[in-house]
């Protein structure tokens, strides 16, 4: 039985656009093109029927660069590594170069689920192969060249279900090109279970995606404040490169990224004129908060988990004018047209421990009557004034805020605010860094009877008076045995040759005497999982 979370994040309205109707917008805006930059594709797979992009500027197989884009016969895409129009990997490489076909299949399935069975779809897939058949590696080594081709070929959405690689001048040039294009670029944060910046997802113009499973729990993917959104990355069945009907199973942030790319294309289909900022706003502010489901990783999933149907509805109707959001970050956006009331009341109250919020407001328009009030939820005014007088950045210590806007007059305007709540570093809740101890006394890890923090990394440097020894006596000890460890070193560093002992569990050791009048360093490191109530030790200085 699927969890309630699974049902919620995978349920989609029956049809975004009714069958037989291409779009409420002009036909000249179509098709919506998703470029998938990956390791290769079987573009004849049954899942892609009616969705394969055909280059309108190329005459098939005439060996002429008809559209003058610098490449010859790029009919369904291009192999930027082998410099030809064959995007299908060589047969002897297909056991390794299956990823692109699989990811394209994930996108195609979502489009088909949304729009039903059709002979011709208003969303097309452009296939950009970025691994040479002769390469001994399986990584998307020419991914940035593929990104460049996709942008120059007019893709509306670019899917980069890969991460890592050298960010050289060519990569920087390709990434810089995003800002000048109309393409919305989505990239995976990677599957390495770490918190670090990895490109292309870390680039400011790229929408970074991490993954959760069917319960909303983090999968083995990168997390961090760079994440913009999370999506389902649980094991999924999709297209296999080896045959036109083949299937295989996989999991990871690549799949989560593909889901977001499909959602963006459907949002563009609902309103092709939508801007990148509007897409980001609707994706972020309609997402499901997942911090409560992942208490060890608060603020590491971006705005929350993708909600496709709500994001599409947001494209059509805009954000609600009176609403409480639980997203720890996002983009609030309000455009006053003739049909919209010039009043709003937004409350932002994320789950979890946050120390404050950073706001980056913006206002466009000539309506001088727009009044904005930002306050804490207990009514304290944090900022009040005309919208066109808002500073570029505001920072408050509140863990929840309310934003009210009132306007008179008929002039249109756009008001928005990018925000991010500042994460309380739970690993530093009770102790952090290095504490220098020169006086005798009793010292603790700081948790005072509560469970100590996960991922603690704390040090105490005991410095005895000249000519005296340090005696360290533990009076309390409760850590996870063999996992959350107190290391004792002779000296001021954590060099292994100076390690005297390791402590964990609940059994108190005998008093520890550090001889020679040298300092002693205690270093406490805890893991991501279980914890205890911590420890207490007494420091005495004794004569040799």
TrEMBL record:
GO biological process, alphabetically ordered: proteolysis
Name under which the protein is recorded: CUB-like protein
Sequence ranges assigned to domain CUB in this UniProt record: 431-542
Transmembrane segments: none
Coiled-coil zones: none
Superkingdom of this protein's organism: Bacteria
Entry's family note: Belongs to the peptidase S8 family.
Keyword list, A-Z: Disulfide bond, Hydrolase, Protease, Serine protease
Catalytic residues, chain numbering: 38 (charge relay system), 99 (charge relay system), 254 (charge relay system)
One Pfam family cited in the UniProt record for this chain: Peptidase_S8
Organism: Arenicella xantha
SUPFAM superfamilies with a match to the protein in the record: Spermadhesin, CUB domain (SSF49854), Subtilisin-like (SSF52743)
Molecular function, one GO term: serine-type endopeptidase activity
